[in-house]
Amino acid sequence: MHGSINWNGFQDFRYNNRFSKLLKITMSSKLFLLLQHIAFLSMILFQLEPRVADSNKIKIRCVDEEREALLTFRQSLVDEYGILSSWGREDGKRDCCKWRGVRCSNTTGHVKVLNLRTSDYEFARRKFLKEWLSHLSSLRHLDLSCVNLTKSSDWFQVVANLHYLKSLVLRSCALPPINPSFIWHFNLSTSIETLDLFDNNLPSSSVYPWFLNLSRNILHLNLASNSLQGPIPEAFQHMVSLRFLALSSNELEGGIPKFFGNMCSLNELYLLNNKLSGQLSEFIQNLSSGCTVNSLEGLCLYDNDITGPIPDLGGFSSLKELYLGENSLNGTINKSLNHLFKLETLSLDGNSFTGVISETFFSNMSNLQMLYLANNPLTMKLSHDWVPPFQLKWLSLASCKMGPNFPKWLRTQSQLILLDISNTGISGTVPDWFWDLSVELFFLNLSNNHIKGKLPDLSFLRSDDIVVDISSNHFTGQIPPLPSNSTFLNLSKNKFSGSITFLCSIIENTWNIFDLSSNLLSGELPDCWLNFNSLFILNLANNSFSGKIPDSMGFLHNIRTLSLNNNRLTRELPSSLKNCSQLRVLDLRNNALFGEIPIWIGGNLQNLIVLSLKSNNFHGNIPFQLCYLAFIQVLDLSLNNISGKIPKCFSNFSTMIQERSSDPIIGMANRIWVLPGYVYQYRYLDNILLTWKGSEHEYKSTLGFVKCLDLSSNKLCGPILEEIMDLDGLIALNLSRNNLTGPISPKIGQLKSLDFLDLSRNHFSGSIPSSLVKLCGLGVLDLSYNNLSGKIPLGTQLQSFNASVYAGNLELCGPPLPNQCPNEESTPCPGRDGDANTPEDEDDQFITLGFYVSLTLGFIVGFWGVCGTLMLNRSWRYGYFNFLTNMRDWLYIVGAVNAAKPQTKFRN
């Protein structure tokens, strides 16, 4: 589809998914995979030459040249399953029109369609393009989407020789850039009507010169998801027949050129996800300056840097799709949108629109199917008995004000498949009619409201890939049956109670994300996780689960995040967890687990980014195998009974050495594709609580930036390792409340990213390293209750902390401590109110009124005694200035002679 949602097609896609599941039951896995990929067709249509054949006299067979070309093509394939066994030169196989996957014209015998799955074959790509395509010179339609052409540097030359080509589709082919010099040596097809190069990362230098050679009759041009930069080029103005233009997901800048207003045939314009900037009124003015205003049906400016209010759009009478979301638009929403009678999609989400949306705004929008107003400070003021003129399929009003009552008008929307009314101020219970709205609903988000009551049976939802998020509400009671065909289930931060043994009755499911955290759930964890192999994220934290961690959790082979923290779990960690090799976050803090830290954590879970065993009963040494965790960013072993020394190999934590992280988020993002480059995205963010500045803080959206090593409150001994000082990216280092000894390494000044440093309550000795002054970003420091001595190094940073930071170190001195260092102390002396005077007081006695009078008189007498005499006595004045002149001349001569000596020396 070209930019619009085909709802029937969407349903067909889901039906095909269900049908493919039935195929799985009856076919072997390899054959099923083969047939499943064959469903993604790569169709090649050939031009029918003007040749007449009498079907009564001549039996049509395939053309010999084309048969040989196909056989040559077959030699370039690996036909592991014998799909092409019907292809050959032997008797009974010579007619290529009867070959599997080949269809011929009934009148000419030319090959008309080649239907083959491409993903399972190893193409000899150069041969395919240069030995094979060159024999098909009459080709009109060529689609090689998803065929990897990375090494086909001559793809452009081959394509340029197909002079009858009307449609060229090379989507996601990893095309090499075009050499601009090639373009001028090849006459491209003047008949080309469709050019689709979506998702090839082609630069502007490869694409723009091509435009000058393209046909003025081109109808469809898709250059989305490439590397186009700079302003939109003027070359587009020659494409006067263009109906569809997609330049989405590039790096285009500036605005929309004025010539776009003269594209009289342009129906759909997709410029989303670029860097376009300027006032929206200028964009609209350029589009409405000519005939485009009458033809335009789809305008997608989503996710740019466009500013200003919405101008009058009433002139765009044909507009069906308007995407202005994720910009910097403001003001009230223009009432002219009410005159867009054909509007089917309206996206204004992610801006700064204000004001009230009433029912009159929608009075003429009877065709509206998709409405996105989310993440704007808007108020929805709709009467209790309002009956909308539309039937919505997608509705997103997240973070708009709708409450406190549940919107009754939703009862009329029986075709909803996506509904997001999260964070809208709704309270009370959900009416019964709501759960009967549509069994086709596949996306439901009611999170961050004040909804109470019990949750009904949700297993009635029959769509595939269902998303349900009802987190952060006040739902109570036991958890009801859940849809087994969902991918995302978030029931966290409610008041659900009871056990979760119901999970063992679910034999088959498609769950990827399952979050029951922060409820009132209790009992033992069920031991039936074998049936949940598709889980990526499992969060059961902040409940009252007890007993051991079940062995069957080791069957979660795809698990990325396992959060069981803040429960009452006991016993040792089951060794079966070593099979969860994809784990990135393992959070088991605040339980009653015991035993030694298993060595398999480092040996088998080498993808870990976050490991928290905080506040348990682990004992023994830190196994050196933890040093294999090269990706670790948060390692928290605090509040246990761990003893021994810190392993020297902690310097192997390579991610902690890097000062920056590429992604602030650790979690998963799921996307529902709406248009090429435009998605409805929902994310799940991993989070963890870290002790910071005396209290616990949750890190969620910035967790990827946190690099923390916390070994505090254990029984570790020995010196602080210099190897730890190599972890330049550390933001927090907490070694407090141990039995560590020795001096603090001067290399601590290398940890320039540190914001938090706590070495308190150990047995560190010696002086505070002066290099600590270099840590300019240090926000928290605690060196208290050690055996440190000497002067606190001078520097704004260390003197800015409270004196309690250095408390309990009896031999420390200097600011901010009240006790001065010995070499800076002065001799104690009586106070100023005593009878005796200090030396300073005695000196001050000389500065009296008589002193100032004498000073003034002396200045007057001295100044006028000299200057006055020179002014009154001419001979003295002349003599004085002659003396100054002679002195100046003598100094000049001496300076010149001395400057000339080195030059004479070098000449000799």
UniProtKB/TrEMBL annotation:
GO terms for cellular component: plasma membrane. Residues 64-105 form the Leucine-rich repeat-containing N-terminal plant-type domain. PANTHER family: LRR RECEPTOR-LIKE KINASE, LRR RECEPTOR-LIKE SERINE_THREONINE-PROTEIN KINASE FLS2. The chain crosses the membrane at residues 849-872. It is a single-pass type I membrane protein. Pfam families: LRR_1, LRR_8, LRRNT_2. The keyword Transcription regulation does not apply. The keyword Transmembrane helix applies. Belongs to the RLP family. SMART domains: LRR_TYP. Coiled coil: none annotated. SUPFAM superfamilies: L domain-like (SSF52058), RNI-like (SSF52047). It is found in: Cell membrane. It comes from Citrus sinensis (Sweet orange). This is Leucine-rich repeat-containing N-terminal plant-type domain-containing protein. Its main location: membrane. Residues 821-840 are annotated as: Disordered. Keywords: Cell membrane, Glycoprotein, Leucine-rich repeat, Membrane, Receptor, Repeat, Signal, Transmembrane, Transmembrane helix.
